[in-house]
Amino acid sequence: MYSDEIETFLKSKGIKTGDRIRVEYSGVTIEGDLMPKTEAGRHDTIIVKLKSGYNVGIAFGNARITKMNGQAVEPGSSPKSKVKQDAKLPKISLIYTGGTIGNKIDYRTGGVYPLLKPEELLHEIPELSKIANITVKSPFSMASEDLSYAEWQKIAHEVASEINSGARGVVVTIGTDTMHYVSAALSFMLQDLNAPVVLTGAQRSSDRGSSDAFMNLICAAQLAAKSDIAEVGICMHRSSSDKECQFMRGTKVRKMHSSRRDAFRPINDSAIAFVTSDGKIDYNGHYKKIGKGKTTVKAGFENNVALIKVHPNSTPGIIDFYVDMGYKGIILEGTGLGHTPVGPSNKKGSWIPQIGGAIKKGVVIGMTTQTLYGRVNANVYTNLRKVSELGVVYCEDMLPETAYVKLGWLLGNYDAKKAKELLNRNIVGEINERIGYDEFLV
Amino acid sequence: MYSDEIETFLKSKGIKTGDRIRVEYSGVTIEGDLMPKTEAGRHDTIIVKLKSGYNVGIAFGNARITKMNGQAVEPGSSPKSKVKQDAKLPKISLIYTGGTIGNKIDYRTGGVYPLLKPEELLHEIPELSKIANITVKSPFSMASEDLSYAEWQKIAHEVASEINSGARGVVVTIGTDTMHYVSAALSFMLQDLNAPVVLTGAQRSSDRGSSDAFMNLICAAQLAAKSDIAEVGICMHRSSSDKECQFMRGTKVRKMHSSRRDAFRPINDSAIAFVTSDGKIDYNGHYKKIGKGKTTVKAGFENNVALIKVHPNSTPGIIDFYVDMGYKGIILEGTGLGHTPVGPSNKKGSWIPQIGGAIKKGVVIGMTTQTLYGRVNANVYTNLRKVSELGVVYCEDMLPETAYVKLGWLLGNYDAKKAKELLNRNIVGEINERIGYDEFLV
Fold first, then answer.
1. Do domains A91-297 and A305-423 have the same CATH topology?
2. A423/A366 Cα distance (integer angstroms)
3. Residues 6 or more apart from A222 whose CB is under 8 A from it?
4. If contacts are CB pairs under 8 Å, which of residues 220-279 in chain B contact chain A?
5. Would the CB atoms of B336 and A150 count as touching at under 8 Å?
6. Domain spans, chain B
7. In CATH, what number does A305-423 get?
């Protein structure tokens, strides 16, 4: 229940939960459906569900609330003028797909709601227009946990189209939770890539004092406008200070913290470059340089591929589950050097028969490690050889997430035999032949 | 095929693949079954499968090979005399359960084989007998990937029995791949623990120059003999140098590298103590101290609990799969702050109906994050609230592996209602209320 004051007011206006209402507060007008108070919500704050699906909370005392009919519209202030661009600056494209970087927080509830238009980012961050001549595109706006390969494909096509239309670099803003899956997908989908493709986002929404949104976007724009890197990567804070960002290879990077600004880390690899807000780029590792030719897209993706984390007493029946559903590929996240339970001690039985059965049916199975750092190696212990001799592909030092994306991409573009052959062959830097001593926990 | 020389020899002696043979080389005699050459194996090395299941390779040129009948026996040299113990030193117990720490490597093939007897560790490391008066026990000897909760229970009972028989501390040697699952299990199973329980192992077998076995075991013995910590933890190399080891809380530690000596790291926590080979203990964090009373065991464990890693386009059908098999608990390893796909964009559908259905049937579902570092938080985004409002327990900063073990333990000892209630309540330090700024990537 809301507070007595709110309940009395709503009753007097004939407003019930689920009704479409208009709320005016602090010069902003929003429209949406009145939601019931949540258990954790404050009694003196009303909750409105926007058309976008996001909930926003508004302090009752400051708001003017009216019942309305018809469609709710997106929140936001009045349309702003177009940002002035400098035609002499390098031409880059900004592809906006949603995520925290485009969100604003509601301080009363801690909830967040999205910006009205992607172009608002240019208004919010005037520095951007001094770095590059920016074209903004937005194929969709979604939370990253809901992105599937269809969205990855859309982004790949949009990126290639922008590059082939003259953009010397592309920035893609995206929700951070699955950003490293997306960066891996784009790494494989974009063929003969001839421009920096810089994914970025924010861990804190852009109207918070501690937001990383501005610096991440500015540094990403600097890389897109100035660097000679022809790879897909992620540009996020190097440390939790605002000193600089780092650009990490799209297949060798992972979100390693749920909330820190420096959550993204290179795994079994070094950052490709460090970059400051004012455009100083410090190249740190080997990378593919911009050459000539057209960037094309090979965007096939197999719908039926799974990533399974193995654990003590885990059931090998999970393999049958996927095989029975017609899955064509499975990545295992094994323990240590790439183990599954193989002994009779596992109450759920050895994984050997199910893995062997699936492979006989033509399913491609790859092995990675849940340690994340380091590589798998089938040659050290007998138990490992038992698994590898069934035909499981040991994926070197590839991240489980990258291996999952790679296998989906391979099976979407090649037959199973070729996919199996290519799975542990290095295509875009996803395998590091010799991991450096310092490439651990950086 | 082996080399012509070997094939000719085997033929002349009437030895075929699978035959029981005796091989004498370098003063060692082993017995086992002749194996076919593996694809990767050397042509001039014969492979013998020991009774233990381990393969060993022997350079043909140096070996005397004879065909035999009857049972093969374990490899090893002649029995050694009992190690002399000093009764005035603190009394500790060493529980040996297998793993690399008790293996020797065969330099010709890179394969490993186990020591004949756990007591050999005392012979191999004479320093141990100067630290403590050591009783060696070995309830079983297994590779850690094959340990299931039955073995965790055996270890828990063995540890409690040793403590209650007068051991002031216990060292448990164990394979490293699932050591952090075991340390979590022992943390919950041992009640009113009144002694240091120090798990250790090795990333490199004990006869390699780079082995960490000696130092890990010596430092673990120092902690068991001298520290006042009454917790279960893992003692392994702090860095890849041999300067010191670190003792990490059993529920807040994880194997983060497949091969490095410093693979085990505290997650969302600090090491409890640093320890050197000569017994200098530097206490670093808060911990439970040795008190009075008897250590008891609450070792119940539910067989039907799963850990599921969520990924883009992952199928919610996996929930039904486990529910249909009668599973009572599921830990999800979500993205970011604890997400599953909830939107219609996921080709496999939203996870909401399946999660909701499982919870209605009484399955306890917990949420952790695949970032490993940081905590889940159901209050930030609408998509998170959608999941938490179904009754999913958000497990704070608990590691996915620890949450899996905890849920299995809870459901093995309490009813579902109580288990759900306790899942995100701190019991033995598995939840860190306030993660320190420096507790990331250390």
1. yes
2. 8
3. A131, A275, A276, A277, A278, A279, A281
4. 240, 255-260, 262-263, 265
5. no
6. 4-67, 91-297, 305-423
7. 3.40.50.40
Max alpha carbon distance in chain B (Å)? 76
In whole angstroms, give the CA distance from residue A240 to residue A289. 29
- A110 Cβ contact partners less than 8 Å away, ≥ 6 residues apart: B379, B380
B 312-351 residues with CB < 8 A to A: 312-315, 317-318, 321, 325, 333-343, 345-347
**B357: its two tokens:** 């259905």
Q: In the structure encoding, which two tokens stand for residue A339, read together? A: 């183990």
- Helix, coil or strand: residue B188: helix
Q: Are B123 and B61 in contact (CB under 8 A)?
A: no
Put simply, whether B303 touches A (Cβ < 8 Å) is: yes
Contact between A159 and A197 under an 8 Å Cβ cutoff? The reply is yes
CA distance A169 to chain B (A): 27
Yes or no, beta carbons of B258 and A149 under 8 Å apart:
no
Q: Is position B177 annotated as part of the catalytic site?
A: yes
- CATH number (3.40.50.1170, 3.40.190.10, 3.30.930.10, 3.40.50.300) of B91-297 reads 3.40.50.1170
Burial class (CB in 10 A: 0-12, 13-18, 19+), B67: middle
- Please give the CATH number for the structural domain made up of A4-67: 2.30.30.520
How far is the first Cα of chain B from the last one, in angstroms, to the nearest whole number?
48
Question: How far is it, in rounded angstroms, from Cα B405 to Cα B147?
Answer: 13
Helix%, strand%, coil% for chain B, nearest 5? 25, 25, 50
Residue that is written with structure tokens 């330090």 in the block: B429
CB distance B160 to B296 below 8 Å? yes
Q: Are B171 and B95 a contacting pair, CB within 8 Å? A: yes
**Nearest partner of B65 among B102, B13, B120, judged by Cα:** B13
Q: Measure the CA–CA gap between A195 and A160, rounded to whole angstroms.
A: 9
Q: How far apart, in whole angstroms, are the C-alpha atoms of residue A153 and residue A175?
A: 16
Is B173 one of the catalytic residues?
A: no
Kindly compute the dihedral angle of the four CA atoms of residues B187, B191, B197, B203, in this order, to the nearest 10 degrees. -20
Per-residue pLDDT of chain B (442 residues; tens, 9 = 90+): 788 888 888 888 888 888 888 888 766 777 888 877 765 556 777 888 776 556 677 778 778 898 887 544 444 443 456 788 889 999 999 999 987 777 765 544 555 556 657 777 787 788 999 999 999 999 988 888 889 999 999 999 999 999 999 999 999 999 999 999 999 999 999 999 999 999 999 998 766 667 898 999 999 999 999 999 999 999 999 999 999 999 999 999 999 999 999 999 999 999 999 999 999 999 998 999 999 899 999 999 999 999 999 999 999 999 999 999 999 999 999 999 999 999 888 899 999 999 999 999 999 999 999 999 999 999 877 888 889 999 999 999 999 999 999 999 999 999 999 999 999 999 999 999 999 999 999 9
- Nearest of B188, B131, B195, B129 to residue B159 by alpha carbon: B195
Cα B399 from chain centre: 15
